[in-house]
C-alpha cells in the first residue's frame, strides 16, 4: 500500500493526505469502536510525520480512554481517526479514503467482544484481544 492517498469526511470540512506505506486494514470489534461507529472499525495506520490534515479546526477529539482519542468531523460527524496518546502514528478509518485505496484486510482484533448480530467469515486471522504488533488499549 505504498504511495500517496487522500481522503475526507462526508462534508469535506476535514481533508487529509498521506504519503508512504499504509498498514493493511485491521477490523476492530471492541465495544468502544462498535458503540462509536454503530458496527466495527476498519482502519489503517500512518505515521504522524506522513499525514497532513486540512481543516483540523473542524475536528473534535473524544478521549474515550486514557490510552487513545477518537477524531471526528464536528460538522457531519464522520469518524476519521483513532490516535494513541503516546505513539507516533494515527489510525485512519479506511472508508474515509478516496478510491482507489489499494487497501486490503489484514486481521480482526477484539473478536471476543464482537457484536452478537454478525459473524466473521472472511478467512482473515482473528485475535481474542489484540496482537503484539498492534498496540491498542487492553479493554
Secondary-structure map:
Blueprint: E1 5-8, E2 15-18, E3 25-28, H1 31-37, E4 41-47, E5 51-54, E6 59-62, E7 68-73, E8 79-84, E9 89-93, E10 105-109
Parallel strand pairs: 3-10
Antiparallel strand pairs: 1-2, 2-5, 3-4, 4-9, 6-7, 7-8, 8-9
Describe the structure.
By secondary structure, the chain is mostly beta strands. Helices cover about 5% and strands about 35% of the residues. The protein has one helix at about 30-35; strands spanning about 5-10, 15-20, 25-30, 40-45, 50-55, 60, 70-75, 80-85, 90-95, 105-110. A seven-stranded mixed beta sheet has the order 6-7-8-9-4-3-10. β8 and β9 (about 90-95) form a beta hairpin.
The Cα radius of gyration reads 14 Å
The low-pLDDT segments are none
Structural class: mainly beta
SSE sequence, one letter per element: EEEHEEEEEEE
List key phrases describing it.
139 residues; mainly beta; 7-stranded mixed beta sheet; 5% helix
Outline:
The protein is built from 1 helix and 10 strands; from the N terminus they run βββαβββββββ. The chain is mostly beta strands and 139 residues long.
Amino acid at each position: 500500500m505504498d504511495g500517496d492517498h487522500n481522503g475526507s469526511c462526508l462534508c469535506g470540512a476535514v481533508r487529509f493526505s498521506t504519503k508512504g506505506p499504509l498498514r493493511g486494514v485491521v477490523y476492530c470489534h471492541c465495544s468502544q469502536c462498535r458503540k462509536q461507529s454503530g458496527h466495527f472499525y476498519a482502519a489503517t495506520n500512518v505515521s504522524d510525520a506522513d499525514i497532513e490534515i486540512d481543516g483540523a479546526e473542524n475536528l473534535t477529539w473524544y478521549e474515550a480512554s486514557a490510552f487513545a482519542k477518537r477524531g471526528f468531523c464536528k460538522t457531519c460527524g464522520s469518524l476519521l481517526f483513532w490516535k494513541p496518546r503516546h505513539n507516533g502514528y494515527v489510525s485512519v478509518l479506511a472508508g474515509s479514503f478516496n478510491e482507489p485505496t489499494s487497501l486490503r484486510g489484514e486481521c480482526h482484533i477484539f473478536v471476543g467482544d464482537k457484536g452478537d448480530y454478525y459473524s466473521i467469515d472472511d478467512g482473515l486471522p482473528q485475535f481474542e484481544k489484540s496482537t503484539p504488533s498492534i498496540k491498542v488499549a487492553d479493554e
